[in-house]
Design a protein that fits this description.
alpha/beta; Adenosylhomocysteinase; seven-stranded parallel beta sheet; Rossmann fold; 17 helices; globular; cytoplasm; 2 domains; 44% helix; eight-stranded mixed beta sheet; NAD; adenosylhomocysteinase activity
C-alpha cells in the first residue's frame, strides 16, 4: 500500500470490507461489465475525480471501476452516518484510493473531509447531494477553470443544482444521474423502499403488521416506502402537497390527508421529500404517544430536530439509533438515526442489485462528460436515452431475460402516418 493521505476509522477492518465488496459485486453484473471494458480502454486515464458518496460496498465497486478506467480517484462520505468503516479501510488498503470518511463523524469533520476531496483539485466531481459543487462555489472557485463537469446521484442534489442553474451560478455541466430511468425508477423506488424498512426494523425490532404507517411525500422514494410498508401489513397513510401525486396515492389504495391529521394516528412516520421541516413543531404537538419518526431523504432537515429538542423535557437512548424524547405531557417520540437517512444510519443502504444500475449510470456519466466536454453547455443535463436503455438491456441479459424486437413492418408503422384505421 502506497496511499499516505486518508482519514478512516481503522485500517484493520480492510479484510472484512474486501469480502463484503466481493459479495456485493455478485449482484452488480452491469457495473462489472463496464469495469472490464474500462480496464481495456482506459477512457478516464489521468482524470482526477473527487467523489462524495455514501461509502458502502456498492460505492466501493464503483470506485474500483473508475480506477480501472484510469481515473485518479478520491472518496469522501456524503453523510456523517452513512459510512461503512470496513469498506473505507478496504479501499485504502487494497485499492490505494484515498478515503475521507468515518461513520458517526461530527459535522466539523464531515466538512473537513469535503475540503480534503476538493484539495484533490478534481476535474470531475461525483456528488450525492451536491456538497462538492456547493463547496466549489462557496470556497474553491479557483477549481472552476479546470472542471470538466460533475455528476449527481440523488433527487435532493438535482434540486440544489437546478436552483444554482436558475440563479446563473452553476459554472459547468452536470449530469443528473438521478433523472435516468434506470436510476430513479429502480434505485429510488425498490432500493429506498426495501432499505428504509430494513433500517426501521433493525433500529426498532417493532412489528409493522397492523400498525399505521405515515409516508411523507409520494415521489419515487416515498412510493417505494409505502409499497414495502403495505407489503409488511401496515396501514399506510400518505401526506402530499402535489394534488396529482396525492390522487395517484389514493388510487394506489392509500389514505391521503394533511400531516397534522395523520400524526395523531401514526405509529410510524417516515419522510422522503427533499424538503425542510416536513415534520415540525405543530406535528410534535399532536403526534401519537410512542410514535417512531424516521427520515429517508438526503438531509436531516426534513425533521425539525432543534424544535423537538426544545419541546422535550428529557431525552434518552433506549436502543442504538433510537433517541427517545419525552414531552411535558408525558408523550414519547422516538427519533431514529438522528434524523439522517435511516436506511444507511442503521442498515446497509440499498441492495446491490439496484445500485448496479445507479452506479453503471455514474460510471458512464463520467465517460460521457469527458467525451463531450467541448459540446456540453453549462447546466443540468440528463444522460442520453440510448445509454439508459443500454444499462437496462445489460441488466436484463444478466438476469437471463430476453425481450421482443420490432419487425421491419412494425418499425415502418411506428415511423409513418399514412396508415390509419
Amino acid at each position: 500500500m502506497t496511499t499516505s493521505s486518508y482519514d478512516i476509522k481503522d485500517l484493520g477492518l480492510a479484510e472484512e470490507g474486501r469480502k463484503r465488496m466481493e459479495w456485493a459485486e455478485q449482484e452488480m453484473p452491469v457495473l462489472r461489465l463496464i469495469r472490464e471494458r474500462f480496464e481495456k480502454e482506459r477512457p478516464l486515464a489521468g482524470i482526477r475525480i473527487s467523489a462524495c458518496l455514501h461509502v458502502t460496498t456498492e460505492t466501493g465497486n464503483l470506485m474500483r471501476a473508475l480506477a480501472a478506467g484510469g481515473a485518479d480517484v478520491v472518496l469522501a462520505a456524503s453523510n456523517p452516518l452513512s459510512t461503512q468503516d470496513d469498506v473505507a479501510a478496504a479501499l485504502v488498503a487494497y485499492e490505494e484510493i484515498p478515503v475521507y470518511a468515518i461513520k458517526g463523524e461530527s459535522n466539523e469533520v464531515y466538512y473537513q473531509h469535503i475540503k480534503a476531496a476538493l484539495d484533490h483539485n478534481p476535474q470531475i466531481t461525483m456528488d450525492d447531494g451536491a456538497d462538492l459543487v456547493s463547496g466549489i462555489l462557496k470556497d474553491r472557485k479557483d477549481l472552476i477553470e479546470s472542471m470538466i463537469g460533475s455528476t449527481e446521484e440523488t433527487t435532493t442534489g438535482v434540486i440544489r443544482l437546478k436552483a444554482m442553474a436558475a440563479e446563473g451560478v452553476l459554472p459547468f455541466p452536470v449530469i443528473a444521474v438521478n433523472d435516468s430511468d434506470t436510476k430513479h425508477m429502480f434505485d429510488n423506488r425498490y432500493g429506498t423502499g426495501q432499505s428504509t424498512l430494513d433500517g426501521v426494523i433493525r433500529a426498532t425490532n417493532v412489528l409493522l403488521a397492523g400498525k399505521t404507517f405515515v409516508v411523507a411525500g409520494y415521489g419515487w422514494c416515498s412510493r417505494g416506502i409505502a409499497e414495502r410498508a403495505h407489503g409488511l401489513g401496515a396501514n399506510v397513510i400518505v401526506t402530499e402537497i402535489d394534488p396529482i401525486k396525492a390522487l395517484e396515492a389514493v388510487m394506489d389504495g392509500y389514505r391521503v390527508m394533511p400531516m397534522e391529521q395523520a400524526a395523531p394516528l401514526a405509529d410510524f412516520i417516515v419522510t422522503a421529500t427533499g424538503n425542510k421541516h416536513v415534520i415540525d413543531s405543530n406535528t410534535f404537538a399532536v403526534v401519537k404517544d410512542g410514535c417512531v419518526i424516521a427520515n429517508s431523504g438526503h438531509f436531516n432537515v426534513e425533521i425539525n430536530i432543534p424544535a423537538l429538542e426544545q419541546m422535550a423535557v428529557t431525552k434518552k437512548q433506549p436502543r442504538r439509533f433510537v433517541d427517545q424524547y419525552v414531552l411535558p405531557d408525558g408523550r414519547q417520540i422516538n427519533l431514529l438515526g438522528e434524523g439522517r437517512l435511516i436506511n444507511l444510519a442503521s442498515a446497509e443502504g440499498h441492495p446491490s442489485a439496484v445500485m448496479d444500475m445507479s452506479f453503471a449510470n455514474q460510471a458512464l456519466a463520467s465517460e460521457y462528460l469527458l467525451k463531450n466536454r467541448d459540446s456540453l453547455g453549462v447546466g443540468v443535463h440528463a444522460l442520453p436515452k440510448n445509454l439508459d436503455q443500454e444499462i437496462a438491456a445489460l441488466k436484463l441479459r444478466a438476469m437471463g431475460m430476453t425481450i421482443d424486437v420490432l419487425t421491419p413492418e412494425q418499425e415502418l408503422y411506428l415511423n409513418s402516418w399514412q396508415e390509419g384505421t
